[in-house]
Amino acid sequence: MEKVIFEAVNLSKEIEGNLVLQNLSFKFEDKVAAAIQGHNGSGKSTLLKILAGIYEPSSGKIIRNTRRIGYVPEHFPENLRFKLKEYLVIMSSFHGISRKGIEFELSKLIDLFEIEQFLEVPLKHCSKGTKQKVGIIQALLAKPDVLLLDEPLTGLDSSSQRNLIHLLEKLKKEVTIIFTTHEDVMIEKLANQILYIEARGILFSNETRKKKRLIKVEFPQKEVFKDLDSIHIQYEGNTAVITVDSAMCDQILISLLNKKCSVLEVREMR
Ligand SMILES: Nc1ncnc2c1ncn2[C@@H]1O[C@H](COP(=O)(O)OP(=O)(O)OP(=O)(O)O)[C@@H](O)[C@H]1O
């Protein structure tokens, strides 16, 4: 079982007399890539701000079992006079990175996000996509274990969207990513959990796409699977392809090995 990093229990949030979120209960596990979905005004950004600790619930509770949270708001500040690199150096010092460490940390992220050619460009002249990357880099400089992204694809053209999704796919191996979005492509590529908020703030559904693993084994006889009847098994001659929740994988592997099965393949599925 993965560590639970956020748990909401009957969480409600009222802003200026308006009940925005009502009685939400959910969990996010460590290293999840979770999408928060819902119509305009359903409360997605508000929920993200609660996860970030910018807002506290009006009632109910939120348990944050995190070390450090990186939050990237939907809109990067307008009209910043700093040049891109100058701005990131200033942000690094806010995060307590030593002068010596700054160049090293920044160069890794500058390479990863491919923004080398814009380092001396004033931020107010950078494209929306570049500013979005700067926002994420700024959050990553704090070495967060959780990255919260509010509508990261808004305003980006389709190639910048693909580019950013690709980066996030790399990052999700290292860090928990929770994002709000209206873009199906982002959910399809990244999310293994979806939290859906219905209008008027009521949680409509909380669909969890659990991580799955595929196990391929050679088996002596079909009886070895008789205790695994709730698990999806596809037979090909004397090999079987079994789909299991990742959390159950080790336990099932041990049981199959004990029953003289030969394991041919184990891999993560999306
Ligand atoms: N600071 C605030 N003051 C007053 N009302 C607010 C504030 N923040 C949010 N709200 C209200 O809370 C509701 C939810 O807003 P929120 O921005 O969380 O929705 P959202 O789902 O992120 O919307 P969108 O998809 O349009 O970005 C809206 O009705 C909004 O007007």
From TrEMBL:
SMART domains: AAA
One Pfam family matching this protein: ABC_tran
Sequence ranges assigned to domain ABC transporter in this UniProt record: 6-224
InterPro entries: AAA+_ATPase, ABC_transporter-like_ATP-bd, ABC_Transporter_VariousFunc, P-loop_NTPase
Keywords (A to Z) from UniProt: ATP-binding, Nucleotide-binding, Transport
An example Gene Ontology molecular-function term: ATP binding
Origin: domain of life: Bacteria
PROSITE patterns in the cross-refs: ABC_TRANSPORTER_2
Protein name as catalogued: ABC transporter ATP-binding protein
Organism, as annotated: Neobacillus massiliamazoniensis
